[in-house]
Amino acid sequence: MTETLLAERPAVTNRDVLTIKDLKAYYINEHFGVRREVRAVDGIDLTVRRNEVYGIAGESSSGKTSLIKTLAGAIRPPMRVVEGTVKFDFGGKHIDVYAEPAKMQAARWQHLSYIMQGSMSVLNPVRRIKRAFNNFAYRHMGLDSAAFRHRVESHLQRLGLDPSVLEAFPHQLSGGMRQRVTIALATVCEPEFIIADEPTTALDVLVQQDVLGLIKEVQGRLGSSVVFVTHDMSVHAAITDRLAIMYAGRLAEEGPTQALFDNPQHPYTAHLIASLPRIGDISTRKSLAGKPPSLANPPSGCRFHPRCPIAIDRCSKEVPQMLPSTTGGRVACFRAGEISVQ
Ligand SMILES: Nc1ncnc2c1ncn2[C@@H]1O[C@H](COP(=O)(O)OP(=O)(O)OP(=O)(O)O)[C@@H](O)[C@H]1O
Question: Does the UniProt entry include the keyword Transport (predicted)?
Fold first, then answer.
C-alpha cells in the first residue's frame, strides 16, 4: 500500500447527508391481469452522516442492492418507489431524490458516485480506460482537456496507479487493478457521497485488503460519506463505522459496528456474527434452518420468525418496530437482548 493509505481520517460528524424515511420500493409486474409485487425495500428509515462509512449487510436477496439503487435514484421499471422519501444534503444543497429527479441526475458523479461490483459493467471492454474518464467525469469538472488529463493523472498517482493505465484496455489489467481504476473513476470528481456495492467480492483476499484500504483512504481524504454493501461481515468489521443488518426487505438492526459485533441484539445479527470463521476454531458453524422468504409473499409479523430460534407467538402476529437498543443503535425484535453469540 502507498503511504497515502495511512492518511488521518476526519471524525464522523453529526450532520446527516442522507435521510431515508419510510421507504418502500417494490418490483411490480402484471401478467395476464395478475399483479405481483416483490417488496424488496419495505419500510426503511435510516440516516448517513458526513464522513461516515455506513455498512449494509444481509444474505443474498435481502434487498441490499435494491435499497442502494433506490437511494441513488437509479431505479428502472419494474421497480417503483411506492412510499417514502430519500433526501440528500450535499453541504447545503438539498435534493429530494424522487421529487427532483433532474437535480439528482445532475448530482451524479460530482456529488454522488457508485463503485460497482463488476468493474466491467462500467468499463467498456472495447474502449481504452481514458474513454471511461472522458465519458463520465469530464463534463462535471469544468476543466479544459489538458487540465482534465492532468487532474486524472495526479488522482491515479495518488491512488497508487500508473497513469499509463489510461491507455490500456480493461482486459489488459488484472481484476484488482480494474477495481482500483473504477474506484479512481468514482472518486475523481471528489464526491461527498460514495456508494460501494460488493466492491471486493470477486477479488482474492490480498487484493481485497488492498481495495478496502484504498476506499478507506479516499474516503478519509475527501471526507466523503460511504454506503458500503456486502454480505461479508468480516469486511464490515474492517471498514464500517455503523452497520445496518437487512433481512427480507427490512432492517433488523443498526448500530455502531463494534458494538453490534460485541453485543448483537437481534437473533439474525447474532447468527451472522456467529457464522464468521475464527482463527484456531475448527468446530462446525451451525447454519440457520430454512431459507430467506419470498418477498412476493413474505411471512406475517416479523419476517425472520419462521427461522428464529427464540421466536414467540407474538412474532408471527405483530411487526416489530425499530426501537433504540442498548448498543446505541436500533433493533426490531420483541426479544432484543435475550440472545448470546457463541
Ligand atoms: N427485476 C426484478 N424483478 C423482480 N424481482 C426482483 C428484480 N430484481 C431483484 N428482485 C428481487 O428483489 C429481492 C431483493 O434483491 P436484491 O438484489 O436487492 O438483494 P441483495 O440483498 O442485494 O442480494 P445479493 O446479495 O444476492 O445481490 C430478491 O427477492 C430479488 O429476487
Answer: yes
Ligand 1 atom nearest 246 alpha carbon: 21
Q: What is the ipTM of this complex?
A: 0.96
Q: Distance between CA 164 and CA 130 in Å, rounded? A: 10
Q: 266 in ligand 1 pocket by Cβ < 6 Å?
A: no
**Residue 194: Cβ-neighbour burial (10 angstroms; 0-12, 13-18, 19+):** buried
Å from CA of 120 to ligand 1 middle = 20
Largest CA distance in the chain: 68
Give the three cell numbers for residue 21. 424515511
> What does the block give as the cell for 177?
487493478
pTM as predicted? 0.90
User: In which order are the strands placed within the sheet that holds 93-96?
Assistant: 34-49, 16-31, 79-90, 93-96
d(CA 84, CA 212): 32
